[in-house]
Input
Amino acid sequence: MRRYILAGNWKMHKDAKEAVELVKALIPLVKENKEVDVVVGPPFISIPAVVDAVQGTNIDVAAQNCYWEDSGAFTGEVAPPMLKSSGVKYVIIGHSERRQFFGETDATINKKALALYKHGLVPIICCGELLEEREADKMEQVIETQIRGCLKNLPADKMRETVVAYEPVWAIGTGKVASPAQAQEVHALIRGLLEDLYDKDLAQAVRIQYGGSVKPDNVKELMGQTDIDGALVGGAALKADDFAKIVNFQK
Ligand code: PGA
Output
């Protein structure tokens, strides 16, 4: 049985004070929920304050990106060991906004995953097709290329713990959620690729999140699909009440 993982990607929102306010509002709303993993992903600068605020709670903290070297002359970048020592557990890599605006590629995502493993951090590896790719009947090809590229040579014992997030780019921040059937189709495709790259046992163990306009009113149906094991939530994660409803979708 895979355990659901509900993660909030706060993107470039909330300064340190607002971030602490948001997570403090969330803590009491989700604290009774022992059935799922709860994760919040604030901007780098708020990570220490948020890690501090969630001490002793059931909430873990994610970063939204990292570099792949441990240290060095890489102005503006943040290294995995720095995230580790700040108390981060997960790192989102390959988000479509990073692919689109910051030149992220399957190859750099792959390097980042390997670097995260070295420091005991868990990658949340994002993939997803553009609207024009879906309309041109290229969704399968795009997802397969992304998964094979991002997962290249990732060792099985680490991959088993890694989270994959399927986020159709046309559904991110648009209010256009993929239908549960559309999402399930791609999640099953990803699980099939995992079986091909590793084996059935590993493919069944890896958690695959859906992301793209997840809201309190559509989460339950999405999570009811066989191969959907959680959500990566943008907009609705910025409101404690909405994110708590998403986390508590089984209640
Ligand atoms: P959204 O963003 O929930 O605002 O669509 C999802 C994401 O980008 O992870």
Remarks:
- The chain has twelve helices and eight strands.
